[in-house]
Amino acid sequence: MKKINRRELLKNGGALLAACSLPISLVEVAFGKDSGQNFTFAFVSDSHITHIKGKQFVNNWDRGLIRAVAETNLMDPKPDFVFYGGDIAQLGKPEEIDHGLEILSGLSAKTHYVMGEHDYYVDLGDYWRKQLGPDHYSFDHKGVHFVVLNSILTWEKWMHQKWDTGMDRMKQMARLDNPNGQPFMVGETQRKWLKNDLGKVSKDTPVVVMSHSPLQKIFKGWNFWTDDAEQVQALLKPFKKVTVLYGHVHQIQTNQIGNISFHAAMATAWPWPYPSTYSQKESFLPKLTVEMNRADPFFERDATGWQFIDMSNGDVAVNYQLPNNQNRVVAMDKKSGKPADTMYQAADKRIPPQDNY
Ligand SMILES: [Fe+2]
Ligand SMILES: [Fe+2]
């Protein structure tokens, strides 16, 4: 029987399904043993819709989001829901949020939203919340507890100091290497809320946390960083299986700290450079337990895309859908107990030099 890859599947839509074999991941989702806990959801992030003037927006960023929406809608079986990982807008302007939401309204599955700093700092999230509701919340789905946090807050005093305009504050946060930028944090109020929320959840329940910034400390100079990450991790420690999915870093990052697996999303807008370039600045990069693989850096749209997630009994497999690069799957490697890029890093696929990490 002809084997089809996912790209062909997406291109040709549901009609092919009747005639051809399904990709493995979808077979598992549809017919897995514990089907109550096997499902997929899509994860789209960091579109940075940028307003120029009037009805003009930066076309390249629009295209990335339009493509992600179209491909998400072609998933078959359909995803149970979609997560949008934050940074809909570039400078948080209502025009940008509205335009991004107009494109995202094409999604056929229910969408849960995460606040990004580019959505927040112009008006401290007022317009975003008006359109989308609370910025932190939780829900249960097929035996998994999902938590959404607003991880891009910072010191109250800094946020509320007298700024000439909200845009001045936004511009302090909306770039890399800005000495006036402030570290992101979840903050005490949400940490208390999280503690209370998790208090009602059995320790055997798989927990998936969605945040915009990584709930780990990677690189402070670019705010690939959450200042109270350890305190949040401590609240998640008692659970058997925890996954944190985040946006913001616009690249594949995978890490395992204790019981917590961390996975980043590709952006639909542009990729940020990769860890080897972090040495330009003082590095806070912890020893990553899983090294990431760089896709091809020579495509204009290199390393942009979207993700879908296979949930299988609480284990997360992130399927990176990269229009101009080979798709990747980062999944829990049972042998090593850490997530691994299944094509390159899984214990049984490793080539000798990679055995060092
Ligand atoms: Fe972003
Ligand atoms: Fe961001």
Q: What does the model show?
A:
- Mean pLDDT is 84; it is low at 1-36, 277-286 and 352-357.
- The protein has 11 helices and 15 strands.
- The chain folds into 2 domains: 1-26, no CATH class; 32-356, Purple Acid Phosphatase, chain A, domain 2, CATH 3.60.21.10.
- The protein has helices spanning 6-12, 15-19, 24-31, 59-73, 94-104, 117-120, 126-132, 156-159, 166-173, 188-199, 229-236; strands at residues 38-44, 51-53, 56-57, 82-84, 111-113, 137-141, 144-148, 207-211, 242-246, 254-257, 260-264, 306-312, 315-321, 328-333, 338-341.
- Strand 10 (254-257) and strand 11 (260-264) form a beta hairpin.
- Helices cover 25% and strands 20% of the residues.
- It has 357 residues and is an alpha/beta fold.
- The relative contact order is 0.13.
- One fe (ii) ion binds next to helix 6.
Broad structural category: alpha/beta
CATH topology of the largest domain: Purple Acid Phosphatase, chain A, domain 2
Please tally the helical runs, counting DSSP H or I stretches of 4 or more residues. Answer: 11
Largest sheet composition? 7 strands, mixed
What's the count of strands?
A: 15
Strand content: 15-25%
- Silhouette: globular
How are strands sequenced across the largest beta sheet? 5-4-1-12-13-14-15
Oligomer: single chain
CATH superfamily of the largest domain: Metallo-dependent phosphatases
Calculate Rg over CA atoms: 20 Å
Mean pLDDT: 84
Query: Which percent bin holds the helix content?
Result: 10-25%
Bound molecules: fe (ii) ion
Reading off the top of the CATH hierarchy, the class of the largest domain is best stated as Alpha Beta
**How many domain units?**
2
Supply the CATH architecture of the largest domain: 4-Layer Sandwich
- Low-confidence residue ranges: 1-36, 277-286, 352-357
User: Ends: how far apart?
Assistant: 39 Å
What is the H-and-E element order?
HHHEEEHEHEHHEEHHHEHEEEEEEE
